Amino acid sequence: LQKLLHLLQATDDPLIQEQALITLGNSAAFSVNQDIIRNLNGLSIIGGMLSDCAPKVKEKALNALNNLSMNIKNQEVIQVYIPQICRNVESAPLNSDLQLAGLRLLTNMSVTSDHHHKMVDFIPCFLHLLSAGTERTQIQVLKVLVNLSANAAMTRHLLRAEV
Fold first, then answer.
1. Locate the Armadillo repeat-containing domain: which residues (predicted)?
2. Cβ(113)–Cβ(103) under 8 Å?
3. Tens-digit pLDDT profile for the chain (163 aa)?
4. b/e 119-158 (16+ beta carbons within 10 angstroms → b)
5. What is the DSSP string of 100-115?
6. Which of 86, 132, 145, 149 qualifies as a cystine partner to 122, CB 3.0-4.6 A?
7. Is 148 helix (H, G, I), strand (E, B) or coil?
8. What is the reported pLDDT for 53?
């Protein structure tokens, strides 16, 4: 895992980055690896890939963070990327794999109300995707909105959002 993270930092080749991110994401299926990746500063390294220019690299980074977000300690680190994840969802092509990867990660990050406040400004985006997206996109957006709606503090924001 350490070598994969080092490789991710050392290369600018998007194909190598994608493969390293896929492997890290798959490794995160095991809880022991989630802790190891966090302890190796892997969440920040992977999170740094969210600003990469290559959409496929961003998508693979979102998928890896999604698998890593199943751990509460990891969520505390990942939460700093929520605004960037939301911006990636907003700017991604409609119904793209990149957009869906971001929505899946936001679904996991919104299961508890701890980080809902970081998504408030993007509620209009979610509502737009709900009306404009395909069924797959709509389902993912609905999962985020259902999680947000479970928090009474979000009611005003959800009801006042302009679409």
1. 1-163
2. no
3. 999 999 999 999 999 999 999 999 999 989 999 999 999 999 999 999 999 889 999 999 999 999 999 999 999 999 999 999 999 999 999 999 999 999 999 999 999 999 999 999 999 999 999 999 999 999 999 999 999 999 999 999 999 988 7
4. bbebbebbbbbbeebeeebeebbbbbbebbeebeebeebe
5. HHHHHHHHHHTSSGGG
6. 86
7. helix
8. 84
Please say which residue of 79, 101, 125 terminates a domain: 79
Q: Model-level pTM?
A: 0.95
Contact 94, 133 (CB under 8 A): yes
Indicate whether 71 and 126 sit together in one domain: no
- The verdict on 5 and 17 lying in the same domain is yes
pLDDT (0 to 100) of residue 93: 97
- Which among 26, 29, 20 has a CA at the least distance from the CA of 2? 20
- Tell me the residue range of the domain where 100 lies: 80-162
Structure tokens at 133: 């997206």
Residue type, 73: K
Q: How far apart are CA 70 and CA 83, in angstroms?
A: 19
Residue 8: half-sphere exposure toward Cβ, Cα within 13 Å:
31
**Number of folded domains in the chain?**
2
